[in-house]
Write a structure and sequence with these properties.
By secondary structure, the chain is α/β, with parallel strands linked by helices. The protein has 12 helices and 15 strands. The protein is globular and about 60 Å long. Bound molecules: 2-succinylbenzoate and magnesium ion (MG). The site of 2-succinylbenzoate has 11 residues, from loops.
Length: 375
């Protein structure tokens, strides 16, 4: 497809409730939306980099800058028939995976629409519905965490993940496990611990958690492998798995047994598929993570999770978990099926359409790169 134009918008979306992790609290999220026009087809994508560089060094603003200055000029006015070809054009730019992913996602949407195929079908997805899980932020009290966890299981979520950080861990989790003795529970530390905390983390063994996600710093693959020898709870890596090569090294070294795949974190859907393939080759389960995306990012995640290796519930929640359905920038909203799954859209492209008035009303910055325009 010959890319004629790329439009970039930083949009502001308000979460229904604050989301607290070990690196901070957010109530308002910024996202970078990408609109790509090619051969009469329009595709949309979402770079889910946040307002604050805590989960990643990228933010919506760095993604806007990198996309406008370097990525869009590298692809507008040129033709690409695959995500791999697009990624090749991006390869001189070091890093900034989420910025690259936003444009790549828009190309996938456009390619699917041009071919009349869903992105799930384009990538070889085999599942028509994916298991939904929920990620709960740190709460003001253990009682509130227990209440929200109960509500989530009541809605049908297949597992509940809760955030932890030093000082908000063992006791809180003991209370949670006592309230839900038989339910699938897991935790996510977002890199808040060090190997010195191994004795504390070993005490989690008694809690029968499905896994502990990213306990240590993102660069500490060796330390994760050490920790894995000291605890029985399986380790899942998120931040550390930056691409297929990191996935291979993490699995081969024993740093993790499970991978949380986020296509945005690894630079795009093509790389996410490669991470999935690497894990499947090594019999390691994977699941699809999230970054509080709007409808278009959620649609991309759900398409990814339709691949056969995604055998664990993802951080794939219904739209109303993030904000009221009528506030989303895309439609239709994602709703939980009975049984706690989300249906994989089967319509061409990513399967959701932009609500342009809401997008316009949420836009706080805008840039455009056209074929033939000076860079
Ligand atoms: O570590 O998985 C994470 C949200 C923002 C940044 C990092 C993470 C998360 C989540 C939310 O856990 C997942 C979601 O529901 O989108
Ligand atoms: Mg995580």
């Amino acid at each position: 497809m010959w890319i004629e134009r790329i439009e970039l918008r930083v949009v502001r979306v308000r979460l229904a409730e604050p989301f607290e992790t070990s690196f901070g609290t957010s109530q308002e999220e910024l996202k970078l939306l990408v609109r790509l026009d090619a051969e009469g087809v329009t595709g949309w994508g979402e770079c889910p980099a946040q307002a604050f560089p805590g989960y990643s060094y990228e933010t919506a603003w760095t993604a806007l800058w990198i996309s406008e200055r370097f990525l869009a000029p590298a692809c507008v006015g040129k033709s690409f028939d695959s995500a791999e070809a697009l990624q090749k054009a991006f390869s001189p730019v070091r890093g900034h995976p989420m910025a690259k992913a936003g444009i790549e996602f828009a190309l996938w949407d456009a390619l699917g629409r041009q071919k009349g195929r869903s992105v799930s079908v384009l990538i070889g997805g085999t599942q028509h519905a994916v298991e939904a899980g929920i990620s709960l932020g740190l709460q003001r009290s253990d009682e509130l965490l227990i209440e929200k966890t109960g509500k989530a299981f009541g809605r049908g979520y297949r597992r509940v993940k809760t955030k932890i950080k030093p000082g908000r861990d063992l006791q809180m989790l003991q209370a949670l496990r006592k309230a839900f003795p038989d339910r699938p529970l897991m935790v996510d530390a977002n890199a808040a611990y060090t190997l010195h905390d191994a004795p504390l983390l070993a005490r989690f063994d008694e809690l029968n958690l499905t896994m502990i996600e990213q306990p240590l710093h993102h660069g500490d693959l060796l330390d994760h492998a050490e920790l894995a020898k000291k605890i029985r709870t399986p380790i899942c890596l998120d931040e550390s798995v930056t691409d297929r090569n990191a996935a291979r090294q993490a699995l081969a070294s024993g740093a993790c047994a499970i991978i949380n795949i986020k296509a945005a974190r690894v630079g795009g859907l093509a790389e996410a598929i490669a991470v999935h393939d690497e894990a499947v080759k090594r019999n390691a389960p994977v699941w699809c993570g999230g970054l509080l995306e709007t409808g278009i990012g959620r649609a991309l995640n759900v398409a990814l999770a339709s691949l056969p290796g995604f055998t664990l519930p993802g951080d794939l929640s219904e739209t109303a978990r993030y904000w009221p359905e009528e506030d989303d920038l895309f439609q239709p909203a994602f709703r939980l099926n009975s049984g706690g799954t989300l249906s994989v859209p089967q319509t061409p492209g990513l399967g959701v359409t932009p609500v342009l008035t809401r997008i316009e009303g949420s836009t706080i910055a805008r840039a455009e790169v056209r074929a033939g325009s000076p860079t």
